[in-house]
Design goal:
The structure holds two protein chains of two kinds. Chain A is mainly α. Chain A has one domain: MetI-like fold. Chain A contains nine helices and no strands. In chain A, helix 4 packs across helix 5. The longest helix of chain A has about 35 residues. Chain A starts with a helix and ends in a 7-residue tail after the last helix. Chain B has ten helices and two strands; from the N terminus they run E-E-H-H-H-H-H-H-H-H-H-H. A two-stranded antiparallel ribbon of chain B has the order 1-2. In chain B, helix 5 crosses helix 6. Classes of the chains: A mainly alpha, B mainly alpha.
Chain lengths: ~220, ~300
């Protein structure tokens, strides 16, 4: 069966898997961004807390995803729970790191000026520091998303949702006529999703980065 | 609300590498929403299925060898391994669990994993670094954006899908797994090498040309020595990435510690699953630690001020 005939025959299943993959990655990214930026905001002012957060995230990133999922299964069981936990954890890492680096990179004289015109701590954070630190944070979000696309595929082995199931179905039926079609459909689906997300981030960057600091 | 925690800053107008100023505003170079070359970390690799994070800071870690750096990680890893071993001794193993670790299977998988990692890293380096040098030469520089575009799409490919395709194409076995691991790690190391060579101060290259050095002399005596930290960072990235991707080699019949994890999951034997996962994590941490020591020890003396 040719690849396109395969896609035509199975488009219901493939679309469902694609939707689940995208929605799992998207939802985990939203959670990871909220938690990651919060951690960044809470730690960047203290030298040791910020450095600890950066070191901890760098260390966690070296852990292979299959091993992390393997360690989560005894705690959470199979299925959606370990997938979501692993995705949020990995998603956090580049965001925390870039948030801290970005927030620390804001020129203190600007923050002083904001203080001088009477802005409160929160106003300074939301109207001066975070907008200036937003481009690196957005880069972190973008890198994290691409990473999660691949990790979500691996999580399918622990009965997670998404296109990884298509790939593992192909692997378990190696040698059968459809193995190539299944693997190809899953892989290409993820590539297309990753590129679409990437394009969306470029657009978000154009819309949300303040005009004054666009490179 | 004290500002004690604020890191020291260079005087205005002089930003460290990776930063620039726009209208007096200190600002991190946005890894470019359009520039894939800057999206790859120089020190941290991504986990098995991922791509490495972008590197936004080059100077947050001191480059000195300190006692905590030498001791903390090995002590933690050793303690975790010892605890796992104790727990495993007391664990109630049934025949299925015993079967999957019988006959020295654990050692076999660990050895396979190390072999996969080391061999693939070797190939990654001998492919990516010369290619990176070639693509920054004047004559072929025009091809670089094309290569980077391909690399960007390649990065979006999930490791497990790439591996499965190679297994279908080349047959089950260690060879397909190795090729997959190498392809997957070549791109970040290549991007890193190119970014580093491009970041070398062009006035240094010009000065070297000006005193009559040949193009090859400039490369060998100026550019490459300046790029050593970067190449070492590439080694580290490749090693860490490859330890992760090697866990997936099992799915292509390539062995490795993925075997313990996968059989733990499919047979629902938590003891095997945890043993495999802990060993993989320990291996990844130790490899990263060794690479970080190498980065510090092998860095040329004159470059200690920064990257």
């Amino acid at each position: 069966m040719s690849f396109w005939r395969y896609v035509g025959n199975r488009h219901d299943q493939l679309l469902a898997d694609t939707y689940q993959h995208a929605s799992a990655v998207f939802q985990c990214m939203v959670v990871a961004t909220l938690i990651g930026v919060t951690i960044g905001v809470l730690t960047y002012r203290s030298e040791w807390a910020g450095d600890l957060a950066v070191t901890a995230t760098a260390t966690l990133l070296t852990i292979p995803s299959l091993a992390l999922i393997g360690l989560l299964i005894p705690l959470t069981g199979l299925g959606v729970a370990p997938t979501v936990t692993a995705l949020v954890l990995y998603g956090l890492l580049p965001i925390v790191r870039n948030a801290i680096v970005g927030l620390r990179g804001v020129d203190p004289s600007l923050v002083d000026a904001a203080k001088g015109i009477g802005m409160s701590r929160l106003a300074r954070l939301f109207r001066v520091e975070l907008p200036l630190a937003w481009p690196p944070i957005l880069t972190g979000i973008r890198v994290a998303t691409q990473m999660l696309m691949g990790i979500a595929a691996i999580a399918a082995y622990a009965s997670g949702p998404g296109l990884g199931n298509e790939i593992f179905r192909g692997i378990s039926s190696l040698g059968s006529a459809n193995a190539l079609n299944q693997v190809l459909a899953g892989t290409l689906g993820i590539v297309v999703l990753a590129l679409l997300f990437d394009a969306a981030y470029v657009l978000i960057g154009r819309l949300t980065i303040p005009r004054g600091i666009r490179a | 609300m004290t500002w004690r925690g604020q890191p020291r800053r260079p005087p205005r107008g002089e930003r460290p590498a990776g930063e620039h100023e726009v209208r007096g505003v200190a600002f991190r170079d946005l890894g470019g929403l359009d520039d894939p070359a800057l999206d790859h970390g120089d020190r941290t690799g991504g986990p098995g299925g991922g791509r490495p994070p972008d590197d936004t800071d080059a100077a947050d870690h001191s480059r000195r060898l300190t006692w905590p750096k030498l001791t903390v990680l090995p002590v933690i890893v050793f303690a975790v391994l010892f605890a796992t071993w104790l727990w495993f001794q007391g664990a109630d193993l049934d025949s299925i669990a015993r079967n999957s670790i019988a006959g020295g299977n654990v050692w076999l998988r660990l050895r396979q994993h190390i072999v996969l990692t080391v061999v693939s890293t070797f190939f990654v380096l001998i492919i990516a670094i010369p290619l990176g040098i070639l693509l920054t030469r004047r004559r072929v520089r025009r091809a670089a954006p094309v290569v980077m575009a391909v690399a960007n799409i390649g990065q979006a490919t999930p490791a497990i899908g790439l591996l499965a395709l190679l297994v279908i194409w080349m047959g089950i076995g260690m060879r397909a797994a190795l090729v997959g691991i190498v392809i997957y790690a070549v791109l970040p190391v290549l991007a890193n090498t190119m970014a580093g060579l491009r970041a070398i101060d062009p006035t240094l290259v010009e000065a070297a040309r000006g005193i009559g050095m040949s193009a090859l002399g400039v490369l060998g005596r100026v550019e490459l020595p300046l790029a050593v930290p970067l190449i070492l960072a590439g080694v580290r990235t490749a090693l860490v990435l490859n330890v992760g991707t090697a866990t997936l080699a099992y799915f292509g019949g390539g062995g490795g510690l993925g075997d313990l994890i996968a059989s733990g999951i499919t047979n629902q034997r938590m003891s095997v699953l945890v043993l495999g996962s802990v060993l993989t994590v320990a291996l990844a941490l130790v490899v990263d630690w060794l690479a970080s020591l190498a980065e510090i020890l092998l860095r040329p003396r004159g470059l200690e001020g920064g990257g």
